[in-house]
Amino acid sequence: MAHGGRRGRRAFIGSFTAAGGPGIVTAAVDEDSGALTLLSARDHLPDPSYLALAPDGGMLYAISETAEGAVAAYRVTEDQPEPTGPPVPVGGDGPTHLGVHAGHVLTANYGSGSVTAVPLRPDGTLAAAPSAVLRHTGSGPYTPRQQGPHAHQVQSDPSGRWAVSVDLGTDSVRVCTLTDGGLALHQEAPLRPGSGPRHLVFHPNGAYAYVVNELTPTVTVCRWDAADGTLKPLAETPALPGAAAGDAYPSGIVAAPDGRFVWIATRGEDVVSTFAVEGEGEGLRLVGTVSCGGRWPRALTEADGSLYVANERSGDVAWFAVDQATGLPRFEGSVEVTAASCVVIG
Q: What is the DSSP letter of 9?
């Protein structure tokens, strides 16, 4: 599978099979325009709502966002990922996100408020069982959504030393170590009570991070110290000025590879907001908003100057060309994928 430029690149799209989604969809990515052409669908796993590629692009990992909670591994082929074994239970309820970190796949389990580590074998396949399940504790003031912990995202920091998880239920970001398969809490960074943090993205310089908040449409700028493994909130900025919290639910956040822009998708308002990054990364300035090209944008992905949006309720994946001067996306087209939930490009 080629990785230079756009030639031979593939998009892998997750979806909710419980809502009629086709499972994991593979699409070809046009090397010039970034347009998607659907190739195949694989209905092997219930509700594969979030996907992640191995660093070398040779393996694809998917969570099963079900009450039982599982993760599966696929070998990437030209037109369709091939399962490498049965799904592995993660010991957590409703995983919503996963990431590859230090020879493991980590899952964020929303329902049970925990993070799971599943070891990877040398060939990239999954071990038969998790090596650790770390349960979060705490709650927040918005009782309908924050009566307990709800881990929503987990990923490696840019240095590869730390596992970072975002918890909507406890209004905090946790920094953890992973040693000999065991997860341990290193720091818990509190955010504003009731903000409901959902996802975090690091600035490419590795010194700042941006946390998008779901319960209030805002983004929190944080300083990240990889040497100490500490996250410090600096400022909270409206993600969509003038939008009421009950009508706007931010979801995906992504940073441009050159660090000049950050994009945020907001459900309900169904828009993508563009922020210019100021200074070394310590400031965000709203440039403008555009339609997401559908309804209920659940996730964003950037690749080679194109922005991809998985629109869950309209059942499509839209792609946009990004203006390199302003950062503003321009709608270019879409393909139909029922109950689309995420897009990864490899």
A: -
CA–CA–CA angle 173, 240, 147 (5° rounding):
40
What's the CA angle centered on 174, arms 310 and 260, to 5 degrees? 50
Query: Which ranges of the chain does DSSP label H, i.e. alpha helix?
Result: 143-146
- 198, 217 in Cβ contact below 8 A? no
328: which residues sit within 8 A by CB, 6+ positions away? 274, 287, 288, 290, 322
- Please indicate, yes or no, whether the overall pTM of this predicted structure exceeds 0.85: yes
Residues 6+ apart with CB under 8 A from 65: 16, 47, 48, 49, 50, 94, 95, 96, 110
Query: Containing H/E element for 84?
Result: none
Report the alpha-carbon distance of residue 194 to residue 337 in Å, rounded: 33
Interatomic CA distance for residues 285 and 137, integer angstroms: 34
Q: Which of 209, 117, 98, 111 is nearest to 168 (CA)?
A: 111
Q: How does DSSP classify residue 313?
A: T
CA pair distance 135, 170, nearest whole angstrom: 12
60 touches 74 (CB < 8 A): yes
Q: Order of strands across the sheet with 230-238?
A: 197-202, 208-213, 218-225, 230-238
Beta-carbon-side half-sphere exposure of residue 186 (alpha carbons within 13 Å) = 19
202-255 per-position pLDDT tens digit: 999 999 999 999 999 999 999 999 999 999 999 999 999 887 667 899 999 999
> CA–CA separation, 94 vs 240, rounded Å?
28
